[in-house]
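Exercise 4. Each item below gives a protein and its sequence. For each, produce the structure-token representation.

Item: Acyl-CoA dehydrogenase (Paraburkholderia ginsengiterrae).
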Amino acid sequence: MNSETQYQRLRVEVANWMHTHLSGEFACLKYRGGPGDEEAYPALRKQWERELAAGGWTGLGWPADQGGRALTVAEQVIFHEEYARAGGPGRMGHIGEGLLGPTLIACGTDDQRRRFLPGILNGTQFWCQGYSEPGAGSDLANIRTRAVRDDAGNWRVYGQKVWTSLAHDSDWIFVVARTDPESRGNRGLSFLLMPLDQPGIEIRPIKQLNGGAEFNEVFFDGALAAAEDLVGAPGDGWRIAMTLLGFERGMSTLGQQMQFIRELEWVIDAAREAGVAHDAVIRQRIARAWAGLRVMRYNALRMLAGADDAAGGAAGGALGREALIYKYYWSNWHRELGQLAMDVLGPDANLLAADDAKRSRLQGVFLFSRADTIYAGTNEIQLNIMAERGLGMPKEPRGTL
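Answer:
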């Protein structure tokens, strides 16, 4: 069987599985649970994770000896595209499966992999990410949360994390904390795994304008991280954190782009309904958005192919320089799409209409996309990264605390 035939069979298999299983009690999950909508049906989306696991659709790129399917990049691309095309909901298990799991495979101990990977794979254990702080968002190295070793060799954590997505629906959190009190910047940090249901951890929701609270503040007051739940060595946290962020710009980018395609289709439909589809400026902006999506796709395939080559054919290799532009590009593209949606709707864009699902969806795209160029590194930080790491330019002067 040639590869094209094999890929087509996989595409049909995924599409058929999604059609069969994303129905009945799961039908309400179609196109729900993505960015800005992560509070939708959390319990049912956790059940959906177990449905995916039972169907063999988790851990697709993980090595077979770690419980994964060891699919190639091309095969994973097919899954993510068909998943998104079918309206697959936002993944409650994304942080565990897409970020922490691959990091433990790359950097964890055999004991950590044995204890944590099965729960991630079967959809029974959910994780959140403890990186950002009030003074350490885009400047991740400016971390003040600290961890102190106790007499038993465990770690006691003190401090605060913020913008922690779905912490209230998670079981565990991975935390970057400062374990060397004399250190500065990205030195002296450690990467800790912590259960959330324990004394010394308080989760406070951050209420948003729409009344939701998918983000949280997490406070640590002597909370416990067991000695065996340190990933890597003390002081090795920055390397582990950067390894994890490399996986963040991996395979799920293709699913994100399928969501963008849907949103562009909504904009085009709205333009037709509003009678502005023949407006020359609107048509030009829609065409630019369409072309931008194609650029985004080809760059994503290029960076994923580079990672595949670096790993000797197994997905999960180090991403190359082309990955440095990805976040900056998609976040600005998406923000412009949100503005285009409002311009297409015209005056109606300013009016709330709970009974108008199309208008509400486009208003949601506009409102949430305003944050795209801020979270996970502001535009300014992304440009510095491209200049310094990608082009080898002199580093921008940093002030001292």
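Check: The chain has a mean pLDDT of 89.
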